[in-house]
Here is the input.
Amino acid sequence: QAFLVAFHLVWAGSGMARLAHRMGLGVLAQSVAGLAFGLSGYLVARAGFLSINAAVAWMPWILLCLTPAAEENTPSRKRFLLLALCLALQLLAGHAQTTWYTWLLAGLWAGYLAVTTYHLEVGAQNSGESIRQKPGVFHCFRAAIFRLLRAWRFLALALLLAIGLAAVQLLPTAEYLSESQRAAAVDYETAMTYSFWPWRLVTLLAPGFFGSPVQGDYWGYANFWEDAIYIGLLPFFLALAALLRRGNKKDPKGFAFKPFGSGLRLHPWLLLAIFVLALLLALGKNTPVFPWLYQHVPTFALFQAPARYMIWAVFALALLAALGAERWQRPEGRGLYWTRLGTMGAAAVTIGAGLAWYFMGDISPTFIRATAIAGTFGVVSGILSLLAPPRPGSEAESPSYPLHVWQWAVAVFIAVDMAIAGWGLNPSIELEIYKTPASVQELRSQLDGQRLYISAADEYALKYERFLRFDTFDPGEDWANMRVALLPDVNVLDGLASVNNFDPLVPGNYAAWMELLDQMDEDSRLGYLKMMNVGLVEKIDPLQPSGVHFEPLKGGWRARWVACFVNSLVDYEAWEMIASKQVDFSTHVMLPVLREPVEQGYCLSNEASQLVTSVEEYGPNRLIIQVTSDASGWLVLSDAYYPGWRAWVDGEEATILKANMFFRADSLPAADHEFVFQFTP
Here is the structure.
């Protein structure tokens, strides 16, 4: 995984560098764009979120495929196939939110290129032809709309092909999503979780201004990584320079790149607009914009963490930095004055922060440390600017060193800056942690195939107050204790079954069932845990070395015979019946059977029955049970119901029913039978 993380960072940076090259920018600009994006705080701080980084890495490559080469006048088949392939690989990366944001940005990008290239095409047709009448405004507008629709059609067709290529993953994902707790829109509070904190804009200059979990002193809003957007101090200054640079007679509009010819321009103000739009959306609940979009515009209620829109901002700033680097020249006149003044000011800031740090003794507030580092990098940025090559035709002396030496110095400085900012954000751990501890081996034998349970409150306390805190990466204890605590989904490493789950997407009825458990009193909860075949209940215990202890729970069952059923035709009524304990699950099963409800429930037998079972085969996709029963009824399993499961009784296929809103059941005739459950989606 460490290799994959590094590879995707390199791949993201390479894509940005290639995009800058496609725009006609030079080697230095390509390097600045690649380093600023590939090593940005957005990617490095989230490196542990493998699916996010894997999806983000394809964003610049997708935009590259949408940007034609210099000699290309119409979309080529090769570019279409490459675009579809990149879109498909991003889909397979497995992060729908990042993929959707990429599609939106791709639509904006393709639309801008389409309209801009039409404007140039008209200008080229009319250049030097004073006799020919220029097309009217209506004709230009209509033709621009036509090119816009054609560009979007190109993108849409590539998306369709990409969806086909990734269908092997998308189809089961769509099925899972339809059965999940997020089949409908997320609730308002969830959608607004991790809205971008406006004060984190300061970290564009000093990434550690509010501390860092690396040093264990992060004190900003929420967690560190969701709002991380640092692209490097020098690239940020270059981005500002690209926006503030004035045009001249030869280049009145600023910067130009030449994929279609000498006239096509990527306006810095377009990238500024993308940045502002990203910031406006990322602020989430901090402005009325996103809440209004949540209420009235589709797709805005699908995801949480609006701060992730800042990937657009990082993309825009990286390209702006490349534009600034392309025209970076030694300052003259007032520019030279302000550069020298800024460099000396940065030095003064560094010295002042250092003195404050020294005289405050052991107290070292995060903003002092961050300001000192930013001041130091500001000094180096100023020196590099003063050593930049002069403008052609300038009276300034040419440098005595080769140009490539200065370019290498710039690239190395940016890389060092980004490495320092990202250092420690992805801590490693010894491989010994993956070995099963002796105490866990004892728990495995004690469970003997049953399941483990921990309450939501205890699970939260173990995760976010003890081991996985937002303010520090160091829990202050041995990480082996987390292995012993068996936090979800650490139990997977030891092959232990748990009824808890730490995935963002889970079956909807499972989520509802677990929420119901948390609302019950202790006695009621234990009865329902037995239905889930729970054998151990984990609880926080400060007196234990590991901080937890495990209480045995007797009476849990994997399979049960019941003779009576009650209807569950309407979900909300069924959940109310379960919550109010109107059903005795020791004798009844709740089934979605189309039968008139009976007050006492419908029973196949009024006699008690003894169920004898033996598991012949037990795997994640196949279960074989030998069953002996002396009366007809239903066999209820403590396994989750999900589409794709099929059942055979003595070799003949039978119908699996959703029992008790969450489990599986099948009709059970009297006598001996072999039940085979197979997951064949």
Notes: The radius of gyration is 31 Å.
